[in-house]
Design brief:
52% of the residues lie in helices and 11% in strands. By secondary structure, the protein is an alpha/beta fold. The strands form two sheets. It has a six-stranded parallel sheet with strand order 1-8-5-4-2-3, sandwiched between helices. Strand 2, helix 2 and strand 3 form a beta-alpha-beta unit. The longest helix is centred in the middle third of the chain and has 21 residues. It starts with 12 loop residues before the first strand and ends in a 5-residue tail after the last helix. The structure holds 1,4-dihydronicotinamide adenine dinucleotide, 1,3-dihydroxyacetonephosphate and zinc ion. The site of zinc ion has 8 residues, from helix 11. Belongs to the glycerol-1-phosphate dehydrogenase family. One of its GO terms (molecular function) is metal ion binding. This is Glycerol-1-phosphate dehydrogenase [NAD(P)+].
Length: 353
């Protein structure tokens, strides 16, 4: 008897392009959202996007509440929940980088309210995903939440963000290659839940991005267009899978561990990119695709070494040998690398000297 079922949650509106930041009020109207919004933002994105959007709401007779967050933590999520309750907000709008959007996503999930995602940087594929990520004790990875009701990604705003935020978004997408390798390995060895559609979408997204790498240049609005479409597509793969598996394998474990060992040293996307070079080597050896991944990262100005991440070699080795512990997710790291093996992969790939 056939007993399978699936429930895929996706945003209802995805608005991407030049000047669309002016359409947030229209999107809210299209969704029939009533009452007062709470904007969840951080200092620079507030100036760049939240303040102009607030002016549009005020012109439409709506008075938004605003909360500014600095770090991704459960304390920040609780603060947003309390602010939303005190302000009698009826929906949330996350405006900023990955951390502001994740906090809005997690707070809205707790409050059982809808939220909108307004990225100000094309820096990560959580813009549209059904996952929220904040550190929790010794763990550091995303947890199930709900996707935004709508995403409004203004390519003009995204192209004016610091260039390294865009290269981080590209690297987060390029890392899908190894995430999918890990997922297939886990399917073969551990019979984990697997979706061929989500895996194919995730891989195809990375391929399209790499094929268009020559369009990805600083200050070029077309780059923001190419990268944001890839980020959406990767996020949709996560929603189809109802897991971050299509976009997060051992390279993400490595990055999450770096977040603990060297907080704020480098951007999420840059860390997963460097991790992906090494885990591609572990999957395919000398003749595998690790050089293609390294060259793709390098062609879009993303870091390919520990030094370029601003992280010392010892920390890279510690992260490599311990990161399998932070999550119950089977990957090419298996039950962990020993130090000699970690030194070998990191030196052979040029990540450390
Ligand atoms: N929920 C999910 O599925 C996913 C979540 N993530 C999470 O997202 C976070 C990484 O996101 P990031 O955006 O890299 O970090 P972030 O949110 O810390 O942003 C980096 C910095 O850029 C600033 N910024 C953003 N837009 C700007 C602009 N237009 N101009 C100037 N500065 C601007 C931010 O205020 C922040 O200081 C991590 O916590 C990661 O775990 C990453 C991928 C997927
Ligand atoms: O960063 C992500 C995908 O790019 C989310 O993955 P995690 O579940 O590992 O946090
Ligand atoms: Zn990621």
């Amino acid at each position: 008897m056939f007993e399978k079922s699936t429930w895929i949650r996706l945003p209802r509106n995805v608005v991407v392009g030049h000047g669309v930041i002016d359409r947030v009020v229209d999107v809210v109207d299209d969704l029939h959202l009533q009452g007062r919004p709470l904007f969840v933002t951080s200092p620079t994105p507030k100036d760049v996007a939240a303040d102009p959007i607030a002016a549009d709401f005020e012109a439409a007779g709506i008075d938004p509440a605003v909360v500014t967050v600095e770090t991704a933590s459960f304390e920040a999520v609780e603060n947003v929940i309390e602010t939303a309750e005190a302000a009698e907000a009826s929906y949330l709008i996350g405006i900023g980088g990955g951390k502001a959007i994740d906090i809005a996503k997690m707070a809205s999930h707790h409050l059982e309210m809808g939220f909108l995602s307004v990225p100000t940087a094309a820096s990560h594929d959580g813009v549209i995903s059904n996952r929220g990520s904040v550190p929790d004790g010794n763990t550091r990875h995303s947890v199930a939440a709900k996707p935004p009701l709508a995403v409004v990604a203004d390519t003009e705003v995204l192209s004016q963000a610091p260039w390294e935020l865009t290269t981080a978004g590209c690297a987060d997408i390029i890392s899908n290659y190894t995430a999918v390798m890990d997922w297939r390995l886990a399917k073969r060895l551990k019979d984990v839940e697997y979706s061929e559609y989500a895996a194919a979408l995730s891989e195809m997204t990375a391929e399209i991005l790499v094929d268009n790498a020559d369009l990805i240049r600083p200050g070029l609005e077309e780059s923001a267009w190419v990268v944001s479409k890839a980020l959406m597509s990767s996020g949709v793969a996560m929603s189809i899978a109802d897991s971050s598996r299509p976009a997060s394998g051992a390279e993400h474990l490595f990055s999450h561990q770096l977040d603990r060992l060297a907080p704020d040293a480098a951007l999420h996307g840059h860390q997963v990119g460097v991790g992906s070079i090494m885990t591609a080597y572990l999957h395919g050896g000398e003749d595998g695709i690790w050089r293609d991944i390294r060259d793709a990262l390098s062609s879009i100005d993303a870091p390919t070494t520990a030094a370029e991440l601003g992280i010392n070699d010892e920390t890279v080795l510690e992260a490599l040998t311990t990161c399998h512990e932070i999550r119950d997710r089977y990957t090419i790291l298996g039950d962990g690398m020993n130090e000699r093996a970690a030194i070998e992969v990191a030196t052979k790939t040029g990540v450390i000297d």
